[in-house]
Amino acid sequence: MIPEKMTAAVLHGPKELKIEQVDVPSCGSGEVLVEVAANGLCHTDVTYYEAKIPEKMRVYPLILGHEAAGTVVKLGDGVTGLSLGDNVLMPPVYGCGNCPMCKAGLDNLCQTSNMLGGNRHGAYAQYVAIPSRFAFKMNKSVDMQKACVAADAVSTTFYALKERLGIKPGDSVAVFGAGGLGLAALNVARELGAEKLYAVDIRDESLAQAAKLGAITVNSKGMEKVFKELKKMSGDGIRLAMDCIGYGSTIAEAFNTVKMGGDVAVIGFTLDNVELRAGNFMGLQKRVGGSWGCPTRLFPEIVKLLESGGIEFDVLISKYYDLPDVEQAFIDLEAGKITGRAVIRIKH
Ligand SMILES: [Zn+2]
Ligand SMILES: [Zn+2]
């Protein structure tokens, strides 16, 4: 039985988050209603919570949350390929399906997309309604309380590594920032065949987690030229680097770290300016590129990775909260008290 009301974390204005009873969303044509199992906590949630987004992007009231997994409990008209009781992973962003980007398989770059917990109600709630074509079925062996973080942290790094960086078996990868995103990057890189992994952070607890994934770790606290240390350790052998923090300085370090012909992906957001030696673009054939989210066409592959057991969620996830404590989770994340990813459990 689907109730009429549900518990949800509703944002009413900057830092005005209330746990309240609201109507269970209706399930429109082509949509499915999903009973949410859990929702991973992402920095973007905090950005919305604190209203550190342009005025025109602010929508109130809004149920936050965009990194979720759950069980299909209702099928809208015309839905095929899914059944009641299916467990599904839900991507955060839903492209329009008609624009040139969507048609090119890059719905992550759609300019008229909707985002869960961004401009449509998200998943810090007992139920969420989403278009059925964005509900990706997972087999029951996948623990949704953990796998929810695959919707964003794992998918973002999967796309960056696979398509933006073109990772190959035997590659070496340096990851700057070993928080939720960085740990996911290390785990995914290992699963995509990377041979040597390097993790750079200033927090020993994060580096300890990275070491569990097989990474060689560097605590860069007070270190001026991290790339020199990495070059020494690797014998100048690192081909790929990822900025998972979002500082001008770490992007520059990543660029200086990769060897001739190397590639850098930026998946941390920053408004910093970055200073790079231009001669190294042509002279050493290095590239730096951004990577934004993940095209939804890759989700079936991501689900397979989850089903194979390749993602070590117990290393990636460092803390669990219950829905009524979601605001505390935001505060803890901002205070740097969460090493990896935090998960908000909804149904357990
Ligand atoms: Zn996110
Ligand atoms: Zn589109």
Average pLDDT over all residues: 96
**CATH overall fold name of the largest domain:** Quinone Oxidoreductase, Chain A, domain 1
CATH H level, superfamily name of the largest domain? Medium-chain alcohol dehydrogenases, catalytic domain
Distinct ligands: zinc ion
Which overall shape is indicated by the principal axes computed on the Cα atoms? globular
**Helical residue percent band:** 25-40%
Order of SSEs: EEEHEEEEHEEEHHEHEHEHEHEHEHHEHE
Entry summary:
The protein is α/β, with parallel strands linked by helices. Helices cover 27% and strands 26% of the residues. The strands form four sheets. Strands 3, 5, 6, 9, 10, 17 and 18 form a seven-stranded mixed β-sheet that branches.
Would you give an account of this structure?
By secondary structure, this protein is an alpha/beta fold. The chain is built from 12 helices and 18 strands. The protein starts with a strand and ends with a strand. 48% of the residues are buried. The model has no long low-confidence stretch (mean pLDDT 96). It binds zinc ion (ZN) (2 copies). Residues 95-96, 98-99, 101-102, 107, 110, 112 line the site of one zinc ion.
What topology does this entry show?
Layout: E1 5-11, E2 17-23, E3 31-41, H1 43-49, E4 62-63, E5 68-75, E6 87-90, E7 93-94, H2 100-103, E8 114-115, E9 127-131, E10 136-138, H3 144-147, H4 153-164, E11 172-176, H5 180-191, E12 196-201, H6 204-212, E13 216-219, H7 226-234, E14 240-243, H8 248-257, E15 263-266, H9 279-282, E16 287-290, H10 299-307, H11 313-316, E17 317-322, H12 326-334, E18 341-345
Parallel strand pairs: 11-12, 11-14, 12-13, 14-15, 15-16, 17-18
Antiparallel strand pairs: 1-2, 1-4, 3-5, 3-9, 3-18, 5-6, 6-10, 7-8
Helix pairs in contact: 1-12, 4-5, 7-8
The structure holds zinc ion (2 copies).
One zinc ion is lined by residues 95-96, 98-99, 101-102, 107, 110, 112.
